[in-house]
Amino acid sequence: MQSMTQESRPDPKLKSKASANAKSKVRVGIDVGGTFTHAVALDAESLEMIEKVKVHTTHTAREGVAKGIIDALQLLLAKASIEPARVAFIAHSTTQATNALLEGDVAAVGIIGMGGGLNSFMANLSTQVGKIELAPGKFLKTFHRFVDTTQAPKDEVLVTAIDELIKQGAVAIAASEAFSVDNSDNEKRVVELARSKGILATCGSEVSQLYGLKVRTRTAVINASMLPRMLESANMTEKSVREAGIKAPLMIMRSDGGVMDIAAMRERPILTMLSGPAAGVAAAMMFLHISDGIFLEVGGTSTDISAIVNGKARIKSGEIGGHRIYTNTLDVRTVGVAGGSMPRIRTGSPGDVIDVGPRSAHIAGLRYVSFASGPMSLKSELIQPFDGDPKDYLALIDSEIEPGEEKPEHTTRYTLTPTCASNYLRLVSDEDCAKGNNEAISFAFDSLSKELNTEPKKLANDMLTLATSKAENVILALIKDNKLDRSMVTLVGGGGGAAAIVPFLAEKMKLRHKLSQHSDVVSAIGVALALIRETVERQVVNPTNDDILKLRDEAQTAVLKMGADPASIEIHVEIDSRANIVRATACGATSVTDTDKLKKDLSDEDKLHLAAESMHAQSSAVSLKAGTDHFSVYGGKVMASKFFGMLQSELNPIRVIDRSGNIRLQVKDGDCLVTTPSESGRAINQLVEMHSQWGDAGKVIPSIFLLSGPKLVDLSGLMDASQVTTLSAPEVEKLPADAKVVAIASIDR
């Protein structure tokens, strides 16, 4: 946004440096955006904001975006007077992997394909991926050699293949063998030999444990192509962090919303693709505690939109150049409209607005009227910002300049934007970073409406109607794709332009909404709060309970190795029966923060009112169903209509609210049982038997959730009660014998 190009206003919600505990530990998050790199420092105990800064993202610097990360960190520490020893956690997102793919700035890769026996012929063909299209007109060049592994190949054979690829122009090596997910010894030998020669290398079994040689090879090749640039940037950033005296592990944002340590990033830089949008979604889950909603991160040029269901972001398989790869990314959908989008105008009597965006004021070199210092004498002009753009984008210039007269270089040119329109309609609060100069905004809308022979309020409404329609279509698709109940959906706005889009859109769609505190730096907050994350997936036909537990333990071990506190780790296992994939995702914090201390406990009356409001029910129709030391479970009764109101059925919605008043789980229709650790398995079996349904695919069990101590354990996505009870056992085994455990079933009628 244009407001972000100026010094930020003093934020009354920031802790003053005088009141901040000079000895408290600090969490640092750095988010690399397209225009600016934002950095925040949060108190590690209270999670209150201590300081925030921004610098220009250094795309063109020799050091790349690493320079901006370093500059932002140094400015943050100096401005907040933070001693390096106080930094307990530091993480950053990066646009480097994404930019490298979009711009084709990657290394040529030599592929050593391998296979033996009857698999040799197909392995040879499947590992020849050829020239990979990364973006329109941008390609990754590959070279190929095949080694038959019917007998274990000698080192000299592998070295010869590596040398031949290097002579052809390969800068990095990717080793890929048929069935290496079962035995990766040959791939690892290739990597070791390449690295011994000073060549960066990766192998298929490092990037994925799924079958599918061609896709696995393609993923390994793309990963290898990123290694030179990504490692250079990572090494530079880590060196600067250490030279600053910070000893905390340096974490990197992943594309699935978690973080990994720098050692893991050095092996799989491909996991950082799209980590920028992932940071905002992480903030929605960790900072805003959204359980079911649509998160819109609104910038100046574009808006990233994603769905959150049961407190988890939606994940999809990654794609490069239209081809599938074995890596997971958040399902983030981007539209070319935001707080700074320029309107397109049809002149005449009356004239009107015909579109908003995708060109933005910032990119076109114009300023927002919102942030002008006072009323101006402005005259409209239709411009073509760049070759290929329409010629009817609105610019506002000094009306004292005669038509056709050459404009002085110092002449400031403005435009109206959704930010201006939202301010005009009084949709922006005084505390929001998008709050503008009402006098200048009113003057501009009055002037333009007279030129177009229309009303100022209609002009502002038309602008926002056109702008928000692009986001509305995406939101409707996300609600449909994720089978969300509209009555439980909240639109959540983050980013500097959130107030320009979200309030008007929510009113238009008749949905609840809220805007993030510190919305201009919400992504940096998400980076600072993101959990260490690892996903382990295997293809297993008819997995046994032992298979499932093995994957669960493997995922847990991975995040423990990266520094996650054992008490904070949560693991979700899901089974894709169509693809025979078992997937275990573990998340954990580097240190446990007692979130119960972050806000005062909400009273029972307030929590009841919150639950009733969420259910769209009267408080008298809602009651406390169960309670633990950490959660309150509320149930209600509502009538739902089907078949155009001809049939009605009674639903039993459930809301789980934590002590601080965050709704942690929303269930449209459910049931719950209060039990003890030793009896929790029996309670789960009871709920499964009571609420399972039968269909063409056989028995379908309800989604099960467990309140165990401070954890809300997600046991959905499993096939039968035995799997659910097997995975629930490790979650309750360390609880006191008399502890309350609540099992909840979500029923899909």
Structure description:
With 749 residues, this protein is of the alpha+beta class. Among the domains are: 120 residues, Rossmann fold, CATH 3.40.50; 124 residues, no CATH class; 58 residues, N-terminal domain of TfIIb (Single Sheet), CATH 2.20.25; 132 residues, no CATH class. Helix content is 31%, strand content 30%. The chain contains 19 helices and 41 strands. The N terminus is likely disordered.
Distinctive features:
single chain, 749 residues, alpha+beta, Rossmann fold, N-terminal domain of TfIIb, six-stranded mixed β-sheet, 19 helices, 41 strands, disordered N terminus
Major β-sheet strand ordering = 3-2-1-4-11-12
What is the strand tally? 41
Uncertain residue segments: 1-20, 594-598
Distance between the termini: 45 Å
| Average pLDDT over all residues | 88
Beta-strand proportion:
25-35%
Question: What summary fits the major beta sheet?
Answer: 6 strands, mixed
Please give the radius of gyration in angstroms: 28 Å
Strand-helix topology:
Blueprint: E1 26-32, E2 36-43, E3 49-56, H1 65-79, E4 87-92, H2 96-103, E5 109-115, H3 120-126, E6 132-135, E7 138-140, E8 142-148, H4 155-168, E9 172-177, H5 185-196, E10 200-203, H6 204-207, H7 213-243, E11 250-253, E12 259-261, H8 262-267, H9 275-286, E13 293-298, E14 303-309, E15 312-313, E16 315-320, E17 323-330, E18 333-335, E19 341-346, E20 352-360, H10 361-364, E21 367-368, E22 378-383, E23 393-398, E24 414-415, H11 418-424, H12 438-452, H13 456-481, E25 490-494, H14 498-509, E26 512-515, H15 522-529, E27 532-539, H16 545-561, E28 570-576, E29 581-588, H17 604-615, E30 622-627, E31 631-636, E32 638-642, E33 647-651, E34 654-658, E35 663-667, E36 670-675, H18 680-691, E37 693-695, E38 698-700, E39 703-708, E40 711-714, H19 721-732, E41 741-746
Parallel strand pairs: 1-4, 4-11, 5-8, 5-9, 9-10, 13-25, 21-24, 25-26
Antiparallel strand pairs: 1-2, 2-3, 6-7, 11-12, 13-14, 14-15, 14-18, 16-17, 19-20, 22-23, 27-29, 28-29, 30-31, 31-34, 32-33, 34-35, 36-41, 37-38, 39-40, 39-41
Helix pairs in contact: 1-7, 4-5, 9-15, 11-12, 11-13, 11-14, 12-13, 13-14, 16-19, 18-19
